[in-house]
Amino acid sequence: MTNRLRSLCAKHTNLSNDDITEIEKQINQISDKNLYPESDVFIDIIDCYSGEAIVVFQRMPIREKSLYSKDIVGDIAKRKNEPAVYRTMETSLNSLDLMGKSQEGQSMRQRVYPIRNNKKNIAVLIVENKLDDSNNADTKIDENIYEISADDDFIINKIDSAVLSFNDKGKLYRVNHSGEKLYARFGYQDNLINLHYDNLSLDFSTFEQIMYFKTVAENTSSMERKVFFNNSYFDVKYIFAENHIGFTMIIKDITEIKMKEEEIVHKTVAIREIHHRVKNNLQTIISLLRIQSRRTEIEDAKQILDESVNRVQAIARTHELLSRQLEDNIKLEEVLISVMSNLQRGSDENRKITVERDINSDIYLSSDKTVDVALVINELVQNSYKHAFEGKEVGTIKVSADYDQGQRFIKISVEDDGVGYDVNDEEAINLGLQIIKSYAEDKLRGILKIQSDSNGTKTTIKFKP
């Protein structure tokens, strides 16, 4: 028996040697003390790959005829036939006198107890007897105490969630159609009426614990918890009515919602990883451009390469921020500060150019719009550094961003106190201004306004968030 047990555990589980030794102790106790002499006794484990229960030990009755005609060790116990086995494995609670169906198709009743080691379930002990409804002779509920009107039945049967009401003894006296369907899905074959809460609980809670909570929480009319059972997620709510000495349990299946939430999280993590990789690829491009810039001896080429570095850096910074968060919206202030800091580091150290900012910290934009704005601001500030202060050793650049007309529009401006330029001079329209115009009007669908004279230049962009 020991070799067979260990072989099955090795094949179907990740149980440790200590776990298997504990199961062997249980088997020895059953055999040495002739426990449950009138019953078929089994021990099942859960296959770690399929989640199905596997029989690893069987002992036929000593005093009665067995319900089985053959050895079923190694066979599968299906949930639809033996719900008590799975319930006890998943909740660590005893399941007593629940109806089941044997591997040979015979109806019976099961008592199932958890076998635990190191604070976890490792197997279940199952005691089976032939079906005898006399065991449930007390199934009749006193209808004078728990009157259920036709209106009540009509209402609760229209509710999609399972509704189960228990009396002061923990016995179920009312269940709606959704409740019956739910427990049928779990494999329950009994009429649920008069089953004890401890046989119906989907988590570790017992009737005694629920009633204790009801007693100590005097001003609480309900309690809620989330439960994972039968590979499904549930919201379970307990309602304690003043005129009701028991309680009502409402079970709502939220598996679909939970799965969608997990799918969103997985997709979000994947998107963050994509942003991270894009940022790394852009950093590689930046490194290559800087190498080319250092190697070239042509000043115009060096300047073009340095400007390209700043443009790619503005895009890379946006992807870096996106790789650190779950949401698609980005705080505009963080991106613009990064863009301005990068340009300041590459500015002419012989001139004292002060960069001021007045940016509303509550502005958040989508990733696409943030990249567009970052590129526009990069070009505007870069143009100011490059052209606005010719012949001047000091100057100021101010970047502003705020909501306009309530929150219908966002207004961004870059202003300097430089020498200005003729906005109508086509020769003054360089690549930077072409990028600004293209992104402001085509990408952001905004309005671009440029004002310039001998006192400086102010460029304003207004667009919808």
TrEMBL record:
InterPro entries: H_kinase_PdtaS_GAF_sf (IPR038424), HATPase_C_sf (IPR036890), HATPase_dom (IPR003594), His_kinase_dom (IPR005467), PdtaS_GAF (IPR022066), Sig_transdc_His_kin_sub2_dim/P (IPR011495), Sig_transdc_His_kinase_HWE (IPR011102)
Example GO biological process: phosphorelay signal transduction system
Every Histidine kinase domain range: 273-465
Catalytically driven reaction(s): ATP + protein L-histidine = ADP + protein N-phospho-L-histidine
Keyword check for Transferase: yes
Pfam families: GAF_PdtaS, HATPase_c, HisKA_2
Domain of life: Bacteria
Enzyme type, top EC level: transferase
GO molecular function, one term: ATP binding
Leader sequence segment: none
Keywords: ATP-binding, Kinase, Nucleotide-binding, Phosphoprotein, Transferase, Two-component regulatory system
Assigned EC number: 2.7.13.3
Protein name: histidine kinase
Protein species of origin: Floricoccus tropicus
